[in-house]
Design brief:
Helices cover 17% and strands 35% of the residues. It has 5 helices and 14 strands.
Length: 198
């Protein structure tokens, strides 16, 4: 059952700022739940579409895809550099082949009120999404679009609408290349400040 309180350090992110959780292009974890079944998979191709919309590529053979199609909901989470082994494990093991995939992965899941999909503990950010059905894109390109309905971030990594990677390198996001290789987000380069408070 969903808990009534947010876990420590996790704070809601105003929806107009939620896209900042993804606009640096990290590898993500996608979770979904339907009919008492749940799963988490890794995805390298997630993209912000608008201030309240995103897209993610989910292969036809993925067990998570069936859960998304059944429920109409999913959660995108931004894993940390410290979670690279977990991300790799979730991305290379299938629920079709191992019914106990989540237990064997060591992933810890939690629920938040109003969010129909599970969230992966230890991530830096979570975006709850409602599927925006586009059957042609889903069938031809495995491309799912979602409306962001709620977002949260761990304040040790994302505070006041900004990532804090310089002061918390273990919270840096992952960027998948190939063959099990990831890069972690690098150092900040500050240019001339602009007013982006909107």
């Amino acid at each position: 059952m969903p808990s009534a309180l947010l876990p420590p350090f996790i704070a809601p992110v105003p929806l107009p700022k939620a896209v900042r959780l993804l606009n640096h292009g990290p590898t993500v974890l996608v979770s979904a739940r339907s009919g008492g079944r749940q799963n988490v998979m890794a995805a390298a191709w997630a993209c912000v579409l608008d201030f309240d919309k995103l897209s993610v590529v989910i292969d036809k053979g993925a067990a998570t895809r069936a859960l998304i199609e059944e429920s109409g909901h999913f959660v995108i989470q931004v894993p940390t550099a410290a979670q690279a082994p977990l991300v790799r494990w979730l991305g290379t093991h299938s629920l079709h082949a191992d019914a106990q995939k989540l237990a064997h992965s060591g992933a810890r899941l939690f629920d938040l009120p109003g969010c129909p999909a599970p969230l992966v503990a230890g991530c830096s950010a979570w975006l709850a999404c409602r599927v925006l059905p586009e059957k042609r894109n889903e069938l031809l390109y495995d491309l799912f679009m979602g409306e962001i309905t709620a977002a949260w971030a761990d304040e040790r990594a994302f505070r006041q609408g900004r990532w804090q990677f310089e002061s918390a390198p273990e919270w840096r996001s992952l960027h998948y290349v190939a063959g099990g290789q990831f890069y972690a987000t690098g150092a900040s380069i500050q240019t001339e400040p602009v007013d982006d408070s909107d």
